[in-house]
Design brief:
Blueprint lengths: L4 E6 L9 E2 L3 H6 L1 H5 L3 E6 L7 H8 L4 E7 L4 H16 L4 E5 L1 H5 L1 H5 L7 E3 L4 H13 L9 E5 L2 E4 L26 E2 L6 E4 L2 E3 L9 H4 L7 E3 L2 H15 L3 E4 L8 H13 L5 E8 H6 L2 H9 L2 E9 L3 H6 L6 H12 L5 E8 L6 H17 L4 E2 L3 E2 L7 H8 L8 H5 L14 H14 L5 H5 L5 H12 L1 H10 L7 H15 L5
Parallel strand pairs: 1-3, 1-4, 4-5, 5-6, 10-13, 13-14, 14-15, 15-16, 16-17, 16-18
Antiparallel strand pairs: 2-9, 6-7, 7-8, 11-12
Helix pairs in contact: 9-10, 14-15, 15-18, 18-21
Bound molecules: cobalamin (B12).
């Protein structure tokens, strides 16, 4: 039998994957050139079979497969990717296993220096690199001229640096047909056909905690937009062919130039397209520039959520991050956004930063309370626990505190918001207060009753929890009472159990 088939796999995600399950765009992008050139590609999304994935994988491991590609984010997906690799190698050790995705982009050596059943890693944009790697494997040529590829040779890890340019893919070349059923994707309990897409790539800012400045460092232009017509043609194509009714822009930042988004919504309106919009990349300095008329326009075009990096409630931390905005700016922007309740304002925060004191953490707690008070429609996401990323400015500070990156599998899979990470710079008290901020984030904004109706068992439980436990944790949060937070252990147990069994994923 001819060995010509490529199986691409999206592994299990961590806890956050229970709330959001978007289409595996990474795999569609990574296989665009392969499909265009006639390769037989199959996509297997393990998130849809969390309890039976091993049997389902066996069914898909046929004799004609010669490459298995996996898209891997840091954290829990690593464990599953390793299990997939092991199952593949047990079936046929000749099949080459290739990892791509954010973990592969940021930490290629971590994969190959551990025995994670992976032969090749592709860092950065995957379409051209993967296609070229497949051609090399077919012709039995070493892939040592392919930008972005890492592999082992004579027990040494060889890494060929990425190309320093963005990789754009025309929407007509995205092989959407590889996914047979889009109704299985979505977020929370909403019955929407969500399609994620880029409107712009890159980011011109220099946030000290973020991997992007390091990644885009040698790119000529650091933020590049896709043309308005391309974007809206893409949206129209998805509406006509896949009944899309929600477009989620996955840009690092969509609003660097406000006229870019304004152009998109004008064109959506021109064409009378009926879609809702969500944006995950907005900065406080950009919100400051938005007029009420602009925000109104966003809302009228169907925007229902804006993710904003508020990041921290301490000016000292904001300045360490190179944010170029202050806590007052956050408060002012929030008050402006409160005038537009059609748009949910969702805030990201980072805590657990080197040099952050208990008082800084309390500033973040107080800012969050203030944001909720001024804008009862806002959403507070679970604050991210800071993880030093190699190549970033803050990594150097963390290293001065003796930080070394994770090395073992269990350390890597713990790289999750809910993971237990206690670096040397976090005091015992700060750790306890952080736990209050993490658990409290689920309740402080009373989001449960606002965004979840309780149609499924899981969400019924969450609503019940909000009724019974919500008032207690909100009281604790308001007064900063972090002592004796034993419920945090229940929370961790629950998160861990759910991630392992995938019960609520199904
Ligand atoms: C949607 C999303 C999610 C979804 C999951 C994805 C989904 N399909 O549903 C949810 C909400 C669950 C999620 C969760 C998290 N996410 Co997220 N997420 C994203 C987001 C916004 C879009 C992902 C996407 O579709 N990208 C588009 C595709 C085309 O890009 P790509 O995945 O990078 O793929 C390219 C290459 O990586 C490569 N490639 C990818 N896969 C493969 C496979 C093979 C075989 C090959 C060869 C190549 C290849 O080729 C592709 C084309 O160039 C990105 C930001 C972004 N713009 O990418 C963050 C991002 C991936 N998330 C990130 C983070 C930090 C998280 C969380 C930790 C956040 C949190 N607070 O909990 C969790 C952890 C998840 C986990 N451990 O399970 C980081 C990645 C960190 C990391 N080292 O893994 C990102 C990059 C955001 C950021 N800049 O910080 N996320």
């Amino acid at each position: 039998m001819k060995h010509n088939k490529i199986l691409l796999i999206y592994p299990k995600t961590g806890f956050s994957g229970n709330f959001t399950k978007h289409l595996p765009l990474s795999l569609l992008y990574a296989s665009s050139l392969l499909v265009k050139n006639g390769f037989d590609v199959e996509i297997f999304d393990i998130r849809l079979y969390v309890n039976s994935w091993e049997q389902e994988l066996k069914k898909r491991l046929t004799d004609d497969i010669f490459i298995v590609g996996i898209s891997v984010m840091s954290g829990k997906p690593i464990l599953n990717a390793m299990e997939i690799g092991r199952a593949v190698k047990e079936f046929n050790p000749q099949i080459k296993v290739v990892w791509g995705g954010p973990h592969a982009t940021f930490y290629p050596e971590s994969i190959l220096s551990n025995d994670w059943y992976c032969d090749y890693v592709i860092s950065g944009y995957g379409n051209k690199a993967f296609y070229e790697l497949v051609l090399c494997l077919i012709d039995n040529i070493p892939p040592d001229k392919i930008n972005g590829v890492s592999f082992k040779k004579d027990n040494k890890i060889i890494t060929i640096p990425n190309e320093k340019t963005f990789e754009f893919i025309d929407y007509k070349d995205i092989p959407y047909h590889l996914i047979k059923d889009y109704s299985v994707y979505g977020q929370l309990e909403y019955n929407q056909r969500i399609f994620s897409m880029y409107s712009a790539m890159g980011c011109p800012y220099n946030c000290a905690f973020c991997a992007s400045p390091a990644f885009y460092k040698d790119f000529g232009k650091k933020w590049v937009t896709i043309s308005i017509n391309q974007i809206v043609d893409h949206i129209e194509y998805l509406i006509n062919n896949y009944n899309a009714d929600y477009i989620y822009f996955i840009d690092d930042d969509s609003f660097v130039n406000l006229s870019h988004v304004e152009g998109i919504i004008d064109e959506i309106n021109n064409r009378k397209l009926k879609v809702k919009l969500g944006f995950r990349g907005a900065r406080i300095n950009e919100i400051k520039k938005m007029s009420d008329a602009f925000i109104n326009k966003l809302a009228l075009a169907g925007t229902d959520i804006l993710h904003i990096g508020a990041e921290n409630g301490s000016n000292k931390m904001l300045s360490l991050f190179n944010k170029n905005f202050t806590v007052d700016d956050i408060i002012e922007s929030n008050i402006k956004l409160a005038r537009h309740p059609e748009i949910k304002t969702a805030y990201n925060f980072i805590i657990g930063i080197p040099t952050e004191t208990l008082e800084d953490l309390n500033d973040t707690r107080r800012l969050i309370l203030r944001l909720v008070k001024d804008n009862p429609n806002c959403i507070i996401f679970t604050p991210n626990t800071y993880r030093p990323l190699p190549g970033t400015e803050l990594f150097k500070t963390a290293s001065q505190f003796g930080y070394t990156p994770p090395a073992t599998m269990s350390e890597w899979i713990n790289v999750e918001v809910e993971g237990n990470f206690t670096p040397s710079w976090i005091s015992k008290k700060a750790k306890k207060l952080s736990r209050l901020l993490i658990i409290g984030s689920y309740f402080v904004d009373k989001k449960v009753k606002r965004i979840v109706s309780g149609k499924t068992f899981f969400y019924k439980i969450i609503r019940l929890l909000d009724t019974l436990y919500g008032p207690i944790i909100r009281f604790r949060y308001k007064h900063g009472i972090y002592q004796g937070l034993i419920e945090f252990y229940f929370y961790q147990y629950f998160v861990d159990k759910m991630a392992k069994t995938g019960k609520i994923n199904s």
